[in-house]
């Protein structure tokens, strides 16, 4: 991403719904366990993070990710569900703390198998982005169901 305002979505033409069917993305996150868990730290506005224009992020927020070691401007459709202190997913519309943990779901099953299983491991760093704008720094802390077959 290297400061470029152009971004290329990686994950195929099903970007908006994962399979072209209404509700398919929500269905993936509802029926399949999370692929991995990560620490998330939202950048402050002074660090170039989110500004007050849209308000703070809330549970249900659908940003994308970019691996820190990617040499391309592509972003991946891997969506978070943020956790409370006990490890349970926060209720919908709950404000997300600046420093938190989240379960992440890889929406595209083919890319889950062919790309992300090789790339993701504990310690991998990535960031959450809104288009070409980096808004949070993240680090994988646990691999969960990444290597399981999708439901």
Would you mind describing this structure in some detail?
- With 151 residues, the protein is of the alpha+beta class.
- The chain has a single domain (8-143), classed as Elongation Factor Tu (Ef-tu), domain 3 (Beta Barrel).
- Helix content is 13%, strand content 31%.
- The chain has two helices and eight strands.
- The chain has helices at 24-31, 109-119; strands spanning 8-10, 36-42, 64-67, 74-76, 78-82, 99-106, 125-130, 133-143.
- A six-stranded antiparallel sheet has the order 3-7-8-2-6-5. Strands 1-4 form a two-stranded parallel ribbon.
- β7 (125-130) and β8 (133-143) form a beta hairpin.
- The longest helix is centred in the last third of the chain and has 11 residues, at 109-119.
- The radius of gyration is 15 Å and the shape is globular.
- The termini are far apart.
Secondary structure category: alpha+beta
**Name of the CATH homologous superfamily:** Translation factors
Q: Could you name the CATH topology? A: Elongation Factor Tu (Ef-tu), domain 3
The CATH architecture term is Beta Barrel
Strand order of the largest sheet: 3-7-8-2-6-5
Q: State the end-to-end CA separation.
A: 32 Å
